Amino acid sequence: MIGLKNARKLKKLNQQKVAMDLNISREALSHYETGKREPSLALLVQMSKYFNVSINYLITGEEFKKK
Question: What is the C-alpha to C-alpha distance for residues 28 and 19, in angstroms, rounded to an integer?
């Protein structure tokens, strides 16, 4: 989840703050950022709203491009 870490860093937030806001552990967030674990669809939606980015961005680090 390339974009998750990017989104967090762009907002200048640490893992602990984001984890607390999303009601998950800091360790879980770390695993999501490194790809060791995958979040549920519901959590992806919550993260997307939290960072105001698309789910695609959270996963790939890129927004959809119109063709």
Answer: 8
